[in-house]
What does this fold into?
Amino acid sequence: MTDRLPHAPPFWRDARVLGVVAQALFVVLLVAGIWAGRAIVESSMARQNIRLDWGFVRQPAGFQLTALTWTVDLDTLSLKHYSPEDSYAEAMLAGLFNTMMVALLGIGLALVSGLIVGIARLSRNWLVGRLGLVYVELLRNTPLLVQLFFWYFGVFLQLPTGTPESPPLTLFNNLIVLTNRSLAIGGVLTERFGRLGVDGGFQMTSEFAALVIGLAVYTSAFIAEIIRGGILAVPRGQMEAARTMGLSYQRALRLIVLPQALRIIIPPLGNQCLNLTKNSSLAIGIGFADFLTSAMTVASQSFRALETFTFVTLAYLVMSLAISAFLNLLRARLALPGA
Amino acid sequence: MKKALAYALAVAVTIAGVSYTVSAQAPRSRLDVVRARGRLICGISGTTVGFSFVEPRTGEMVGFDADFCRALAAFINVPSVEFVQHTSASRIPAVIAGSVDVVFRTTTVTYGRDAQVDFGPVTFYDGQRLLVRTASKIRGLADLSNARICTQTGTTSERNITDQMRLRNLKFELVTFAQPKEAFDGFVAGRCDVWTTDASQLTAFRATAPKPIEFMVVGQEFSDEPLAPVYQENDSKWADAVDYTVYAVIQAEEFGITQITMGSEGRLKELSDKDPVIKSLVSAGDGAVVRTVRAVGNYGEIYNRYFGPARATAIPRKGTRNALARDGGAMTSRPFR
It folds into this structure.
């Protein structure tokens, strides 16, 4: 308890009392606002005859998309192969699984290539520096969807089709087979509908490859600039001191400069990882069954667009928050003690 | 402190304002909304050859569906049409949300969809078939074991092919695209062995291939796809406008009234004086039918403009349900009295 001052102001002029009152008032208004908002949504949905009904998620999906492979069995919570008899919810989870795969692989590839290009941009070699510049400017100044179309229609679908005129590329006695449908490892080469293709084995489809490479290459241009900026932000003296101590350029970069740059670049790098994850929804343009594609199919087959997209929004939110949380953790670990 | 109060006040005022406008809104027909706006917002595909596509020479949006949008604008006497491109998956949510007034986008009427939106009269009777490489020896659904199949996401085509393949217990792979153009490109590039969707689209896109002879439409129609306009539920005034636009162009064809006939006042007067039925057609809705047919022609003229025998994207009409009822088809109007 604090002693009241002899000249304590009346309570209506006491900043502490007023503060509490204002906060209480704000909470009341917030609750009223949420309640009113809910009432508005409910009444306008009733007016348009829309009722939220989540029962549909357990109905059988009845569709089979190429890339939907793994999903979670909602009854036993175990991993299983997706099939059209599975429910709408499981179909969407299969899509979510694909999106996470694309995001993880894409982020990994983007970080590696971004790092290489970022360092190349700083090279004293004129040619290497210019090549880095062209790479960055070309990729970050054209729309991602156009780039995805380029990778898919312009690169991967131009690979051999498997007809007698353009036979598939094979390596190691048909262990690895490349057609414009997939890169297959360890499958059986069979002829079907006049074209050679592969059954079974590990298959990476053209859609998947185009999406991952397209996303990674696009994002790596931004990451390269972030890394270049991060390295430049480390005082020159650090590099000079390291070189004076006899470290080679590579070792100085790796041991002295990059660890310090990392601290600076984590937040913007996190943004790029989030962007890549969300941009993966452009998969719908090139026929890859990612989370959004399978959710769109679910929405149009079940006519439950509102419920489906509520789920889609929440799932993307959770994914983004998870990435943010991970990066925050990383930042906390890397922070200078006491800083 | 003052800031917090001001903020709270602003929130309260906004909420009160929004709830007032929402609750005070009287149900208004879309017809009044469109007339007040002076512009019809029409949902189409925009990349479906024959139905709605950009004419390369003029840059204009044309096609069977696009012409019906223009017909509707003329019918309700609204000067302009704004075309909004939608994918198969986005068209029905767009109608429900009200961001488009009507959708003419090769949409199949189904019982399930009718629970969410309303449908107008059928403008085109279609059915699902297969587009294959001539060399592939696929001639029907039974040959599709282990086939890779391209189609569009969110369509009845996607559902039908899955059902048919499961019925036959055949293994298959489905690659789905957002738009028919991309599905077709993927198929031509060899990603799939088959492209399946409504036969009209297969025929129209086949004609645009570098060598159409390399591809052929095969198999029995394995689904019934009556394509019709889509609009919001429970708005009968707007429903009447859309429905009678379709009926107007069909009726004009039934009476043999063409765009040229409608354009000539003298000829119109002559016909109306001779036949009271034509007189009521001409005078209906302050000349709504006259405006409509002047804008786009009658049903047969619209059909022939995009699918006529002279076009690359020709689709035979004779003997199909798209012929007039008196020729054994299913196209029929309602009396304009």
